[in-house]
């Protein structure tokens, strides 16, 4: 694991050759290019989409995980299987399925037209919204599973004690359940936020190459532009940014995340 990372860091300080190779000439130019307005905007767009994806998966995933943890045990296996089943299908195939659903001649538009809600097909594909929908769908299980594990571990006696002391259900949830499940929330947010920065194929397919994120930029530098040093510099910058975000998240939590939620 260390060897490719060290190699990427090493070539990030070199320069692109005339024919697309690597010239062993030490330089900081690749890192200076990152702060140009064009690439800086890509970083900001990537962070914003990753943040929105994380927020929506948390908003949708927490109630789902809470209900799964509270239903009778004989039904929990089925509920967990419904979360895991999408992993049995290649994520690329599932993304193509979303493309078919959201196309102008897809199922969603056809249903809306037949119901009389719209008169002409909506342009849903190749937009930021389409990218967000596919991101949330693809990463939803990564949020639910840590949340479910964390919620299931909450001692019911604490909640009963809070109610005996006069707290209603909402207050007991906010003062007992929510703080105790914070490790699962932080773990789920990390597991969603980090992959959402690198899922370049979702942006390529659902965004129609109109949405450029960090993952797409890195892929293009290595495979299209053949500028490996700059692609490596962007990769290093992304890794450093992720480490900072993870560190801040753990710091805000105020304690170590229970590794079992991973």
TrEMBL record:
Its main location: membrane. Residues 43-249 form the ABC transmembrane type-1 domain. PANTHER family: INNER MEMBRANE ABC TRANSPORTER PERMEASE PROTEIN YDCU-RELATED (PTHR42929:SF1), INNER MEMBRANE ABC TRANSPORTER PERMEASE PROTEIN YDCU-RELATED-RELATED (PTHR42929). The chain crosses the membrane at residues 38-65, 77-101, 125-151, 172-193, 230-253. InterPro entries: MetI-like (IPR000515), MetI-like_sf (IPR035906). This is ABC transporter permease. Pfam families: BPD_transp_1. It is found in: Cell membrane. Keywords: Cell membrane, Membrane, Transmembrane, Transmembrane helix, Transport.
């Amino acid at each position: 694991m260390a060897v490719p990372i060290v190699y990427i860091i090493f070539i990030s300080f070199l320069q692109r050759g005339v024919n697309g190779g690597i010239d062993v000439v030490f330089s900081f130019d690749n890192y200076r290019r990152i702060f140009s307005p064009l690439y800086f905007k890509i970083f900001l767009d990537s962070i914003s989409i990753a943040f929105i994806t994380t927020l929506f998966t948390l908003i949708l995933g927490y109630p789902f995980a809470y209900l799964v943890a509270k239903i009778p045990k004989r039904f929990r296996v089925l509920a967990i299987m419904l979360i895991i089943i999408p992993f049995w299908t290649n994520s690329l195939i599932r993304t193509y399925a979303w493309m078919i659903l959201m196309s102008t001649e897809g199922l969603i538009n056809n249903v809306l037209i037949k119901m009389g809600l719209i008169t002409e097909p909506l342009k849903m594909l190749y937009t930021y919204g389409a990218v967000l929908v596919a991101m949330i769908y693809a990463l939803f299980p990564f949020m639910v599973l840590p949340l479910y594990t964390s919620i299931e571990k909450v001692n019911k006696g604490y909640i009963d004690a809070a109610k005996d002391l006069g707290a209603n259900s909402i207050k007991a949830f906010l003062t007992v359940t929510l703080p105790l499940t914070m490790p699962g929330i932080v773990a789920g947010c990390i597991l969603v936020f980090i992959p959402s920065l690198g899922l370049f194929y979702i942006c390529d397919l659902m965004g129609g190459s109109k949405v450029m994120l960090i993952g797409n930029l890195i892929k293009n530098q290595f495979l299209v532009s053949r500028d490996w040093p700059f692609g490596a510099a962007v990769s290093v910058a992304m890794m450093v940014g992720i480490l900072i975000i993870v560190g801040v998240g753990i710091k805000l939590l105020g304690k170590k995340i229970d590794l079992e939620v991973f």
